[in-house]
Amino acid sequence: MDPTLKTRTIATLREQIPALPRGLRTVAKYVIDHPSDFGLDTIRETASKVGVSTYTLVRLAERLGFGGYDEMREPFRMALVSAAVVVERPAWVDGLREGGDLGQVQAEASVNEMAIVQRSLEQQNVDQMSRVVNMLIEAPSVYLTAVRASYSLAYYLHYVGRMALPSLQLIPRHMNSAIDELHTAKAGDVMIAITFTPYSRETIESCAFAQSKGMKLIMISDSEIVSPDFRADETLLVSVLSTYHFGCYAGAMALIETLIAMLVARGGEEARARINSYEELRSKGQVYWSATKKR
Hints:
Elements: H1 5-16, H2 22-33, H3 35-40, H4 43-50, H5 54-63, H6 69-78, H7 91-97, H8 100-122, H9 126-138, E1 142-145, H10 151-164, E2 168-171, H11 178-181, E3 190-194, H12 201-212, E4 216-221, E5 234-237, H13 250-284
Parallel strand pairs: 1-2, 1-3, 3-4, 4-5
Helix pairs in contact: 2-5, 7-8, 8-13, 9-13, 10-13
């Protein structure tokens, strides 16, 4: 079997996904986002996870020129690398499991957090991270947007990152919409968008608007295919799997911390001097509590 067939199939899906009917588009996105599960599961299990009929899976295989579903799945099965991260379970995790029902919950959540941090960081390619850092450093203006739960990540990236990257702006501000804030943006500017399943309508619309203005787009997300209407210039993928209903952002935060470290290093003496000036300003303003200071 051609060892490149899996890669070529994913590339074809990415290229064709905007033109696919809705049901096939849903399946294509699942295959792109979860290639290991696709190679491992049966057709019924995959259909159940995607929320489509088995016939829809067969239709996608035929549309791609395969003789059937099994023929399409075979290169994924042969190249299977489990998406689950194997992390060492230290003794303290076993100790948590002895703490009753809540101890079990804490243990499972702890193992999951360690796994998705490792999974998220190991996905980052040094060449891509370098491209992203250079893109941000060289841009006249950098806009950063996210809403709802993802906003906390954007706020932190802006709060710390602007010391190394003074062109960084968090939008929206003052109850505006992100599109309002992008009105004066120019071609060559960059926008960073943070969004995870289920994707925010406001963020998706902002991304499409930014690209319509000729801006470059960097996404931090759990999928390369967030919307069939646009394709980011760079997508930094992280895992947000959790043991509870909502996404777990530990992996995303680890990526952001890594990005900030690289921005500081790339910024050199200017970045370090800027960070020191912020620290001096805060020290003079006595923003940090100290038991030795009299009020």
